[in-house]
């Protein structure tokens, strides 16, 4: 597909084609402005391609009615560089909120939230507010929130961008564990150490074109 934003002089993604299988772990790398965020926005149907199509889980996003989009997005968990936690809610409440908005009862939350907080290594810190947690711990809460609905796909946009190298590796261990449960992980990153250590598929974008797609790749 091709994506040209209104008013832009050239496409942000230019005639690209990529297939990701269920359960894969894929890094998207490339210089600033190369089109990585646009790719993520297309996958979430925040923007639509100018030409071509995008299929997610057997559905063509261009044919999806807009009222179906919120439901579709439940199948995708998102993690960002800046955590995006609700500051006046505890770790537990931040994760429970993701269940609340899709209509799950508090009884479900009481069962599921402690499980997922335990999974991300935050057992015992459920009642801390974001400002009472380290950056790495806040990102764990964000991962728990993204994963609590067991999404098919986890999109991570520079999830280690604000973390030191050791904490980054811990977050990657967590994403790796989640991937091993069968969740497809798509991660945008500039972190060469992480890419080189993980040795997973690497898709490199430059000026809107895919210039490399390599299994078990390195940052290069
Ligand atoms: N809403 C928009 N309207 C016009 N142009 C846009 C819009 N959003 C992004 N662009 C342009 O599309 C290109 C790709 O941007 P994109 O944000 O996808 O890059 P990126 O690879 O994610 O960069 P970074 O690593 O800095 O986040 C850039 O040239 C950018 O200026």
TrEMBL record:
<feature type="domain" description="ABC transporter">
    <location>
        <begin position="2"/>
        <end position="220"/>
    </location>
</feature>
<dbReference type="InterPro" id="IPR017871">
    <property type="entry name" value="ABC_transporter-like_CS"/>
</dbReference>
<comment type="subunit">
    <text>Homodimer. Forms a membrane-associated complex with FtsX.</text>
</comment>
<dbReference type="InterPro" id="IPR003439">
    <property type="entry name" value="ABC_transporter-like_ATP-bd"/>
</dbReference>
<keyword id="KW-0547">Nucleotide-binding</keyword>
<protein>
    <recommendedName>
        <fullName>Cell division ATP-binding protein FtsE</fullName>
    </recommendedName>
</protein>
<dbReference type="InterPro" id="IPR015854">
    <property type="entry name" value="ABC_transpr_LolD-like"/>
</dbReference>
<keyword id="KW-0132">Cell division</keyword>
<dbReference type="InterPro" id="IPR005286">
    <property type="entry name" value="Cell_div_FtsE"/>
</dbReference>
<comment type="similarity">
    <text>Belongs to the ABC transporter superfamily.</text>
</comment>
<keyword id="KW-0067">ATP-binding</keyword>
<dbReference type="InterPro" id="IPR027417">
    <property type="entry name" value="P-loop_NTPase"/>
</dbReference>
<dbReference type="Pfam" id="PF00005">
    <property type="entry name" value="ABC_tran"/>
</dbReference>
<dbReference type="GO" id="GO:0051301">
    <property type="term" value="P:cell division"/>
</dbReference>
<dbReference type="GO" id="GO:0005524">
    <property type="term" value="F:ATP binding"/>
</dbReference>
<keyword id="KW-0472">Membrane</keyword>
<comment type="function">
    <text>Part of the ABC transporter FtsEX involved in cellular division.</text>
</comment>
<dbReference type="InterPro" id="IPR003593">
    <property type="entry name" value="AAA+_ATPase"/>
</dbReference>
<keyword id="KW-0131">Cell cycle</keyword>
<keyword id="KW-1003">Cell membrane</keyword>
């Amino acid at each position: 597909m091709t994506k040209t934003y209104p008013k832009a002089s050239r496409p942000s993604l230019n005639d690209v084609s990529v297939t990701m299988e269920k359960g894969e772990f894929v890094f998207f790398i490339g210089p600033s402005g190369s089109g990585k965020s646009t790719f993520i926005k297309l996958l979430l149907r925040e923007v639509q391609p100018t030409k071509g199509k995008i299929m997610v889980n057997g559905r063509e996003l261009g044919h999806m009615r807009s009222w179906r989009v919120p439901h579709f997005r439940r199948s995708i968990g998102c993690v960002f560089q800046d955590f995006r936690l609700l500051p006046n809610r505890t770790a537990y409440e931040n994760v429970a909120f993701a269940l609340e908005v899709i209509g799950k009862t508090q009884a479900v939350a009481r069962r599921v939230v402690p499980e997922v907080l335990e999974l991300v290594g935050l057992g015992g810190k459920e009642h801390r507010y974001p400002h009472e947690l380290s950056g790495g711990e806040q990102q764990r809460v964000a991962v728990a929130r993204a994963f609590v609905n067991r999404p098919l796909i986890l999109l991570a946009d520079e999830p280690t961008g604000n973390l030191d190298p050791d904490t980054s590796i811990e977050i990657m261990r967590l994403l790796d564990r989640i991937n091993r449960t069968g969740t497809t992980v798509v991660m945008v990153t500039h972190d060469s150490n992480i890419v080189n250590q993980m040795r997973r598929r690497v898709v490199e974008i430059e000026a809107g074109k895919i210039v490399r797609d390599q299994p078990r790749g390195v940052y290069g």
